[in-house]
Amino acid sequence: MSRFKFELRNTPQWQNLEKSYKEVRKISLRDLFKDENRFNKFSIREDNLGLTFDYSKNIINSDVFRLLMEFVKAAGVNERARRMFSGEKINWTEKRAVLHTALRNRSGKPVYVDGKNVTTQIDAVLKKMEKFSDDLRSEKWRGATGKKITDIVNIGIGGSDLGPKMACEALKYYAHGLSVYFVSNIDGADICEVLKKLNRETTLFIIASKTFTTIETITNALTAREWITGRLGKDAVAKHFVALSTNAGKVKEFGIREDNMFEFWDFVGGRYSLWSAIGLPIVCYIGFDKFVEFLEGAYYVDLHFLNTPYEKNIPVIMAALGFWYNNFFGASTHAVLPYSQYLCRFPAYLQQGDMESNGKTIDFEGNKVDYETGPVIWGEPGTNGQHSFYQLIHQGTKFIPCDFIGFIKPLEEVGDHHEKLMANYFAQSEALAFGLTEDEVIKNLEKTGVSPADIELLSPHKTFEGNRPTNSILIDKLTPRTLGALVALYEHKIFTQGIMWRVNSFDQWGVELGKALANVILPELKGEKTCDKHDSSTRSLIEIFKSGRKE
Ligand code: F6P
Prior knowledge:
Layout: H1 12-24, H2 29-32, H3 38-41, E1 43-46, E2 51-54, H4 62-75, H5 77-85, E3 112-113, E4 116-117, H6 118-137, E5 151-155, H7 162-170, E6 179-183, H8 188-195, E7 203-208, H9 215-232, H10 237-240, E8 241-245, H11 248-254, E9 261-263, H12 280-286, H13 288-307, H14 314-327, E10 333-338, H15 346-358, E11 376-378, H16 390-395, E12 402-409, H17 417-434, H18 438-447, H19 452-462, E13 470-477, H20 480-501, H21 512-525, H22 536-550
Parallel strand pairs: 5-6, 5-7, 7-8, 8-9, 10-11, 10-12, 12-13
Antiparallel strand pairs: 1-2, 2-13, 3-4
Helix pairs in contact: 1-4, 4-14, 6-12, 7-12, 7-15, 12-13, 13-20, 14-20, 15-20, 18-19
C-alpha cells in the first residue's frame, strides 16, 4: 500500500536541532551555569499550585530552547490539544474521542461527543459516587449480615488498578475510616494473600474493568464472588459487590445489579481513567470533597496547558526536553524519582501512562517511523534508589535524564527526617549536573593524607563526569490538589510528545497479541487441546510445565 510519507527528520525544525546538538553536546553544565541568571531563565513558578519547575540543569542554551519550542509549534500541539479538549475523535485507530479532561472540567461548560453533552453524564456519575461513598463511610451501606463495611478490595488491572492504587497510596495521609486493598495479578497469590486478612461480612469488592472482559480481573472477581457467596449466600452479592465499567451487559451477566454499577465511557482511556468512576476507591478512601480537590488540581493544569505560551508551559517544556534527549542524545530511558514515600507507586503508574501511550512505531500516516519514540520510564522513591541504582546514573555508560520530585512541607513532621530527605534531593541533582573532576578528586584525597600511590589508584574511580540532566519539581505540599496537578502535568507531557513523534498516544494494540496467544495456550495447559504450531522453545517449555504439574 502506498502512503504519503512525512519525513520528520528532514523538516527544518529537526535539522536545526540536529545541528545544535553537535555544538551543545560539547558544552558542560558547569559552563552553562557561569550565567548567574540561569535559574531565573530556565525555571517556572506556579504560585497557585505552590509548584516550582526548575529545568535549568538541562543541557540546553537559549538557542536550543527556542528551537525546541519551534519544533513544538510546527508539530501543532496547541491545535491538537484543542481538538482533544473539544471532544473530536483524535484516537483515530479506535474512532474515539479522548476526554479524560472532561472528567475534571470544573468550568460547567458543556463538552460534546456525537452531539451529546457528556458533562451531564459525568456529573451524574460523580453524584452517584458521592452518595455511595457517603453511605459507606456513614455506615448506612452495610454488608449482607448488617455489619458495617470496613475494607474495600479493588479488583482491576492496568488503568483500572494503577491509577487508584497510586492515588490511594499518595493520599493515605488524608484517609480515614475504610481500608483499601488492590488485587490485580491473575496469580492466585495476589487475591489469596489479601483475602487472608479480611472478614467476608465487612468486605466490599469493587470490580473495576472498562471492558469487563479482562481475564485477570474476571478471574479474580469470580474467586471473590465465590469467597463471599460460599458463606453468605448468593444474595450477598448485592451488598458486597459494585462494578466500574463501560460494559453494562457484562456487569449484569456477572450478577452485579445495574444500580451498583458506576459507569464511564469509551472516551476515557484506561490509563487516563482515575478521574472517572475508576476513582471510586479513592473517593471511598479520602472522601468525596478531597476527590474534588484532586480533580481541581488537574483542571488547573488543563487550563495552564491550553492557555500558556509554550515558553512558559510546564508540560510542553517537559515534553520538549524528553524529546531532545530521546532523539538527539540517544537516551532510551527516563527516571522519575519522587522524594516522598507517599509517591512510591508514582513511577509504576507513569510506566503505563507513558509507555502504553507512546510505545509506538507507526506514525500519523501509517508508516513506520525512522526515529525513536517513547522511552522506558522507571524509578523508585528517593532515597531508596540512591542505595540501589543511582551508581549507574552517576557513573555508568548510560545517559539517563531524571525528574526529581520533592515537597517543601512534609505531611509527617518527625525530627529532622524531612531536612535529611531533602538534603539528598538537592544533593543528587547537583552531583549529577556538576560531578567532580579528577583534579578535584586528587586535591580532596591529598587533603586527607592519602598516599600518592593510592591517589593514582583511586582518582579515576572517584571522578564524576557530571553533565547528567535533571528536572526538579518542588511543590509546597502533597495534597489531593497538587497530586491531581502533578498527574495532569505528566499526562500532557505524554500527549505533547505523542504529537511530536506523530503517533497515536491513545490506542494500545501492542498488548493484544500476547493476550490472544495466552488464550490459545490455556486449553493446552489444562489438557483440553494440543497444538503443533508452537516453536520448539515454547513447545518444550509447555511440556516441562505440564509434566511438572502432574508430579
Ligand atoms: O491490556 C491493556 C489494557 O487494555 C489497558 O489499557 C487497560 O488499562 C487494562 O488493559 C485493563 O482493561 P480493563 O479496564 O478493560 O479491564
